[in-house]
Each structure stands twice: as structure tokens, then as C-alpha cells.
Write a structure and sequence with these properties.
The protein is an alpha+beta fold. The protein contains 22 helices and 29 strands. Strands 1, 2, 3, 4, 5, 6, 7, 17, 18, 19, 22, 25, 27 and 29 form a 14-stranded mixed sheet that branches. A five-stranded antiparallel sheet has the order 20-21-26-23-24, with no helix packed on it. A two-stranded antiparallel ribbon has the order 8-9. The termini are far apart.
């Protein structure tokens, strides 16, 4: 069998595994949008779209007039569906680290009664947005979907359980509406939540959060959703990042549930261009289909059984949810580790040299190693250890290059630094990451194969997969499948291929079957990670792509010219090496000429001539006869062509990414600029929170501040500042209504009020608060939640959104015998009328709001 014929089965297998991974990606594409003529009981994005266009025309931050208009429209739509909605005006507060976020909200609530209810199912989304975005995807598309789901449910028989539709207000500043909902009668006794969110404006719609112990919810999700996407690894990652949703509040108070959200299009998160025109209709169809199916599943279930706590490891591939009890994570990880160790021992023992039978003259043949392939060097313990180290090096290199991608893009185009987490069109960069990982893995193999063959390196890959499985089983069981299942499959595939050396084609099939799970799982996982967190943190996705490419290494090695054979093509134990063709074409059968210890570190034989390095066993067949400089060049091209082409493609895709993401009217640059007035000193400053700022903002805020003393939300310090004219704006009022001391404690009751109709009021203290409450006219007092005091000049901060005109009364208890120093600030939205303000140029939009000081805002600070 010539070299090309030997490589053909591996090439076919490599293509098949690659296509399988691509197919797994394509399986997560959304369905076609359903039209208005879809069956009445089904979800139709075309029926939901008019509502979305009506409510997502402009930003609707909590307490705004635009938000009030959306509220009224939602009430009218629910009434038209035959429901009896109510507006719950309430107050709430939630802690975020060292800060407390509070405010007044107006939730819209409606109930679809069940026929024989065993509990309540809450279908939730929020209708408020940040000040910088119309919020089409976050979260008004989900609000429109809920109205369409309610219509579809009303068109069929009633559910068994009560369904509560919760369209909350004040989610964006800090889950205020969910906190207020806890005081509603429908929140008593808990229930099950399906919370719809919009971290992006494109597919897939995925389950990215499940309440701990929610194995029964995973089962419902697996049974019901027609387009399931989600995995326990992403759930664990999400819960470890500190992100929150309305489900967070309800979960903390005994509810169970899932978060279901649009994961793609992260560049539009809180972006001024997050409009209905930018939203993927098919993605909303996917979201609506999944949510409707999940509500029907939960609505007909015995909710008491769902509350039986159990955790599960789960992941979805090809639209199928694979799941198993989390209690199996550790046993599977240990089993995988043992399987890899057994495989290492097997490859080492099968590589031990044997004594050949005596030749006709009675002379023994030299020792011949049994399982050398992929570039020559035999399997030894030192080489196995070196393979483990080499694979670790590859993982480090790919992760490092991935980590450097975003800084490199920002260096080439500073405008990237203002984006939330992703460019507008990230697809070329993501494919570039794939090709970069392939280039590094393939290139490392070609460079090392003289010393470390593909068996050794594959064992090294499986070692690190087993380590990943064990570590994840201990630290994040939901991600353990990435290590344990892939290591088990890979070890079985390699062992089977080695055992089938007499049947090379079948052995290659077995090897491909062992490789495929890791390639598919890590490829899909990498796509999920890059979609969720964007290229700003490309290292995790790069690491996953590296594992995918490394898992395919035995196939990459087998298709590399001069790279030897797959394990299935290696002669079996006791089988003589194949004849090697000489330059004249006649086979030269190896014969004994005495032992030799060569650079490959193992016994070999020299017989006749060698004509191109096709000795898959590492057998030396005479002297090398070159074909001149041209022959050496083409041999180099044959060996290095794959890695070089992959590397060139990675660079080309990077260039394509820069081209399709060129900033312009459709893909605007972003700039942050705000105005801050010190009411006591009557001094003002332009401030920008981005570094470096856009030139439009840098004209007013050119300087890096040497120090900054005024308290801003979340204790932010501006990146750039510049002197501004002091506007004649009234300062917020802070009135001490009562002061009393009890031993070493001081209690203050104060009223804080904005004279400018502020969107937000902030109250700061230079001493930590150990207890307190707040009250607004017409509502019951709300206890301030426990928080984690931070250091600095202002260890306590409460941010209050949508404050009433009469102000807010706070009762604060301090562990201090003297009155603490207080500061108050009010924030309004918009820079119109501020002295020296110049409108933004075309193609420059507001920086998406992510908490902290919003862009295009005016803050007046007063310190007492």
C-alpha cells in the first residue's frame, strides 16, 4: 500500500469528524419565523412583532415617561386577551457587593388560572431598559413573546397550574421590580419561574441558568423544548460570574426556575442600536417556541415533584439533551483517569522491542519496536512524560494567543475598546480562532514528531482531558463531561485502533469514533463560550478550540506526508515490517545487519536505500537519496503545508474581520461623556469612563485625573477629566430629620430629595451602615438588605432609582459615636442645555450602560 493510500482512510475520517462538528454548530440555528397564519396554539414571531415595534421605539428606563407609556400599552394588550392585569406599584432593594440598589417600580401582573393547580408557574420578562438603549432584545422581545404565548395558551385548553405573567420594571438598575414582586400575594408560597432574558439580539436561545438542585427542571427542558440549547457547564460559569436576573431574587426566596435567553449578538447589549430592525426574527421565534413548550410542560406537571432537589450534568448536541446525575461526575472522572493510565501502560508495553526469530543462517534479527507511528520515535516512559508537557505547552500557547486577540484588535482599532464584549460581526474572528488553534496544534506535531510520535502526544492530550475531568468534578461538576466523557471515548478509540492494526480501515473508523466526541463537544462548547462572553475574553474559547484540535491530532498526524500511519496501520505484534519501496520501485524487505542506536532513541535496521521517509515504524532503510533542492522544498511543503495553510487562513480571517467590522453609520463608534458638578465648590468637570476616550469626548475630557474625591456610582473614578463651566443647577437636598445615639451607635433619619426631577439619587456615608430602611410616600417601609461593606472614603452607598418628587426618607444605623459624613448626588439624563456641550458627530453613539455613571448624564454632588 503506497503512502497516499495509507493516508486516505485517515483523511476521510478527518473530514467526517470536521463535518460532524460543523453539523453540531448548524443544529443550533433557529427555525424559520412563523407567519401570522401559523396555527392558533403555536408561537408566531410575526404576530408578536407589532407589539415589539410598539414598545421598543426608545429607551424606557425605570420611572421614565416612555416607560409609563409601555406599561399602559401592556395593560391594554393583556386586557384585549381577556385577562385582568394589574399594575403593582412597589418599592424594593437588592444588594450588589458593597452597594444597595433600591427604587420604586411598576410591575404589570396578570394571571391565567389553572384547572387544578398544584402551584404557580411564573413567566417573567422585564419591560424597562437602560438609559442608552431601546432594549429590543433586552428585554422587550421577551415581553412581546410573553403576550404571544398568552394568546396561544388562551387558544387551547387551560393549563393544570396557575400561570402568572410578570412583566417587571426596574430590572436593569438592580432587580428592583422582582424585589417588589415578593410583596405581592402571587409571590406567596413560591413556585417555578421561566425567566426570559436577552443578553444578545441573535440566536441561539439557550438555557443558561438553572436553580441549584433543579434536575427536574432539566428533565422538563429536555422533554419539552423543540430547539433545546444549553449545558450545565455554562450554568456553572454564569453563576460564578456575578451576573443576575429577576430569577436571582426569586431563587433567593425559595423559588426554582430557569433563565432562557438570546445568546448571540452580544455587541448590541444595552446598545443604542438594539432596535427591532437589528433583532433576528428567527431567534425570537426560537425563544418563543422554547418558552411556550416549557410553560406547557410545567403548566401540566405536578409542581410538588419538581421541587425534589437533584443536580444533573447536561449538554445538548444535535438538538438532543444528554443528561446524567451529578453524583456520577466524580466516578466518571476517576474512571477516565484510570482508563488513560491503562492506555499509557498499554502503548508502552506494546512498544517494547521483541527478539525476531533466527534467520536461515541461525543469526538472530535485531530488536524491532512494535508500535511506532506518526513520525518515528518509539513509546517510552520519558517520551510519555514529554508528551504530557508538550501538550500543556500547546494549550498555553493557544490560550495566550487567544488572550492577546482583543488587545491586538484594540491596538489596531481603538474603537473596539468601547464595545461591550464583541465586535458587530464576530464570526470571522471566531473562525480565525479555530484556524489558529489548528495551526498551532498541527505545527507543534510536525515540529516534535521526530522525538514524540502521535501515540505519545495523543496520550498526553488524554492525560489533560482526564485532569480536566477530575478538576471539574471537584470544583464545577456541571463541566466535568468535557473531561471525563471525552477522555473515556478517546482512550477507547486509541486502544481499539491499536488493537485493530491488522484491519487498518476498521481501526481508523474506531479511532475516528473515539476522537469525534471531543472534537464535537469542545467545538460546540467553544462556540457557546465565545457567544456568551465575546472576544473580549477569548481565552476560554481558544482553550476549547485547542482541545478540539488536539483531540483530532492522531488523524492530523496520519494525513501529514511522512507522518507515518494511524495506529490501525501499524503492524500488529509479531508481524514483520512492511516492505519499503526503493527508488526503482522494487520492494526492499528489511533484513538484519546488526543493531543501531540512532537519533530516534530506539533500535533500528539499515537495509538498502530510503526514498522519502515512508517507514511508518521508524525503520531506517539505507541512506537517504534526495531529489535535489526542489525535492526538499516540495517535501517541506508536503509536511508543513497543513499548518501553514491553517495559519494563513487565521490571518486572512482576521483581516476579513477588520474589514466587515469597519466603523460607520451602521456600525457606529461609541463614546462616553458625562457632566459632574460639585455643588459645594461650584466647580464642574467633563468626565469620560473609557480609556482612551473617543476624540469627541477627549476634546472635553483630555486629562488623566491625579485624584478624584467626589463620590460617583459604584465608587467609580473617571478615566479622563476636563474643566467645564459650572452650570447654575440646584443641588440635591439632604435634611436630617432625627439623630440619636445609643452607646457606640448613631442612628440618622434623613430625607433626600432632588430638585431636578432626577432619574437617580445616590446617598453615601463615610462609615459603614449596619442596618436601616427607607420609605417613600404611600408605600410601606422597606428594610435595607445586608451588604458587604467596602473600603475607601465612602464604604456605604445606596442608589435609588425613580425617586418621587417628595423625596425618600432613610433611617440608617451606624457603628459610630459621632455623626458620619454624608454625600448626596442626583443624576439626570441628557446633556442638552449644559454649557459647552456639543452634539455627537454622525456615527458616534452612546456607550452602552452597564452600571455606574451613565453617559450623557448630569450629576450634581453635595457633601455634608
Amino acid at each position: 500500500m503506497d503512502a497516499l493510500s495509507r493516508r486516505l482512510p485517515a483523511a476521510v475520517a478527518l473530514v467526517a469528524v470536521t463535518l460532524l462538528a460543523v453539523a453540531a454548530w448548524l443544529a443550533e440555528l433557529p427555525p424559520a419565523p412563523a407567519g401570522r397564519d401559523a396555527p392558533p396554539g403555536s408561537f408566531s414571531v410575526e404576530r408578536a412583532w407589532p407589539v415589539l415595534e410598539r414598545i421598543a421605539g426608545e429607551p424606557t428606563p425605570v420611572g421614565s415617561a416612555a416607560g409609563d407609556a409601555v406599561r399602559d400599552h401592556l395593560v391594554a394588550e393583556l386586557t384585549r386577551l381577556g385577562l385582568r392585569p394589574e399594575v403593582q406599584t412597589g418599592a424594593g432593594a437588592h444588594p450588589f457587593g458593597g452597594d444597595v440598589v433600591a427604587g420604586v417600580t411598576e410591575n404589570v401582573i396578570a394571571v391565567v388560572p389553572g384547572a387544578d393547580s398544584t402551584g404557580r408557574v411564573v413567566l417573567a420578562a422585564h419591560y424597562d431598559s437602560t438609559p442608552t438603549t431601546p432594549g429590543a432584545s433586552d428585554d422587550k422581545a421577551s415581553v412581546a413573546a410573553i403576550l404571544e404565548i398568552a394568546r396561544a395558551l388562551r387558544a387551547g385548553p387551560p393549563l393544570r397550574n396557575d400561570l402568572v405573567l410578570l412583566l417587571s420594571d426596574g430590572e436593569e438598575p438592580g432587580l428592583i421590580g422582582a424585589e417588589a414582586f415578593l410583596r405581592h400575594p402571587m409571590a406567596r408560597d413560591g413556585g417555578v419561574v421561566v425567566n426570559l432574558e436577552g443578553p444578545g439580539n441573535a440566536a441561539p436561545s439557550s438555557v443558561y441558568n438553572v436553580t441549584p438542585g433543579g434536575g427536574a427542571l432539566v428533565g422538563a427542558f429536555a422533554r419539552a423544548m423543540p430547539h433545546p440549547v444549553g449545558e450545565s457547564a455554562m450554568v456553572g460559569a454564569y453563576r460564578g460570574t456575578g451576573f443576575h436576573s429577576d430569577l436571582t431574587v426569586l431563587e433567593e426566596n425559595g423559588w426554582i426556575g430557569i433563565d432562557l435567553g438570546l445568546a448571540g449578538g452580544r455587541a448590541y447589549y444595552h446598545h443604542p442600536r438594539d432596535t427591532p430592525a437589528a433583532l433576528d426574527r428567527a431567534a425570537l421565534q426560537m425563544q418563543g417556541d422554547n418558552a411556550l413548550a416549557m410553560v406547557r410542560e410545567l403548566g401540566s406537571a405536578d409542581l410538588r415533584e419538581l421541587r425534589q432537589p437533584r443536580d444533573e450534568v447536561f449538554f445538548t448536541i444535535f438538538g438532543v439533551v444528554f443528561r446524567y446525575p451529578a453524583g456520577l461526575a466524580t466516578p466518571l472522572a476517576v474512571l477516565a483517569a484510570l482508563a488513560v493510565l491503562a492506555l499509557a501502560a498499554y502503548t508502552r508495553l506494546s512498544a517494547r522491542p521483541r527478539r525476531a526469530e533466527p534467520a536461515s543462517g541461525g543469526t538472530h534479527q535485531p530488536d524491532v519496536p512494535r508500535s511506532r507511528f506518526g513520525g518515528g520515535a518509539p513509546v517510552t516512559v520519558p517520551r510519555l512524560v514529554a508528551g504530557v508537557v508538550a501538550v500543556l505547552g500547546v494549550l498555553v500557547v493557544v490560550t495566550g494567543l487567544s488572550m492577546g486577540l482583543w488587545p491586538a484588535l484594540v491596538a489596531l482599532e481603538p474603537g473596539y475598546g468601547d464595545l461591550v464584549s464583541d465586535p458587530y460581526r464576530p464570526e470571522p474572528y471566531r473562525l480565525g480562532l479555530v484556524m489558529m488553534a489548528v495551526a498551532v496544534v498541527w505545527g507543534a506535531y510536525v515540529a516534535l514528531r521526530r522525538w514524540l510520535n502521535a501515540v505519545v502526544l495523543t496520550v498526553g492530550v488524554l492525560f489533560w482531558l482526564a485532569v480536566l475531568g477530575v478538576a471539574a468534578a471537584l470544583l464545577m461538576p456541571g463541566a466535568s463531561n468535557y473531561g471525563s466523557l471525552t477522555a473515556l471515548a478517546g482512550a477507547a478509540g486509541l486502544a481499539g485502533a491499536l488493537a485493530l492494526r491488522r484491519r487498518p480501515v476498521l481501526g481508523t473508523v474506531v479511532l475516528a469514533c473515539g476522537v469525534a466526541p471531543a472534537v464535537v463537544m469542545f467545538s460546540v462548547g467553544a462556540r457557546s463560550i465565545s457567544t456568551a462572553i465575546g472576544l473580549v475574553m477569548a481565552a476560554p474559547a481558544g482553550l476549547f478550540y485547542a482541545f478540539a484540535a488536539l483531540s483530532a491530532l492522531p488523524l492530523l498526524a496520519a494525513v501529514t506526508p511522512g507522518g507515518g500511519r494511524t495506529p490501525a496501520a501499524v503492524p500488529a505484534r509479531g508481524e514483520a515490517p512492511a516492505a519499503v519501496p526503493a527508488r526503482g520501485g522494487a520492494p526492499v524487505q528489511p533484513t538484519g545487519v546488526g543493531p543501531r542506536t540512532g537519533a530516534e532513541g530506539g533500535p533500528g535496521v539499515r537495509v538498502g536505500r530510503r526514498s522519502g521517509g515512508e517507514g511508518g515504524l521508524g525503520v531506517r532503510v539505507g541512506r537517504r537519496t534526495g531529489g535535489g533542492g526542489g525535492g526538499r522544498f516540495w517535501r517541506w511543503v508536503g509536511v508543513w503545508g497543513g499548518p501553514v495553510v491553517a495559519g494563513v487562513l487565521a490571518l486572512v480571517l482576521g483581516g476579513v474581520g477588520l474589514g466587515v467590522n469597519r466603523f460607520g453609520e451602521e456600525r457606529p463608534r461609541l463614546a462616553h461623556l458625562a457632566y459632574v458638578l460639585d455643588a459645594d465648590a461650584r466647580q464642574a468637570a467633563w468626565v469620560s469612563m473609557t480609556e482612551p476616550p473617543h476624540p469627541w469626548a477627549a476634546e472635553r475630557a483630555p486629562d488623566v485625573p491625579g485624584s478624584w474625591d467626589l463620590p460617583l456610582p459604584y465608587r467609580q473614578v473617571p478615566a479622563r477629566v476636563g474643566t467645564a463651566p459650572a452650570a447654575g443647577l440646584p443641588a440635591p437636598e439632604l435634611t436630617v430629620l432625627e439623630e440619636r445615639r445609643d452607646g457606640g451607635e448613631t442612628t440618622l433619619r434623613v430625607r433626600v430629595r432632588s430638585q431636578r426631577g432626577a432619574y437617580q439619587l445616590n446617598l453615601h456615608a463615610d462609615v459603614a451602615v449596619i442596618g436601616g430602611s427607607f420609605e417613600v410616600p404611600g408605600l410601606a417601609p422597606v428594610t435595607l438588605p445586608a451588604y458587604e461593606p467596602e473600603g475607601g472614603a465612602w464604604p456605604f452607598e445606596v442608589q435609588f432609582f425613580a425617586p418621587p418628587e417628595e423625596g425618600v426618607e432613610f433611617t440608617l444605623r451606624f457603628e459610630s459615636a459621632t455623626r458620619p459624613r454624608l454625600a448626596v448626588a442626583d443624576i439626570t439624563l441628557g446633556l442638552d442645555g449644559v454649557p459647552g456641550h456639543r452634539p455627537r458627530p454622525a456615527g458616534v453613539d452612546m456607550t452602552p450602560s452597564g452600571g455606574g455613571l451613565p453617559t450623557d448624564s448630569v450629576t450634581v454632588v453635595r457633601v455634608l
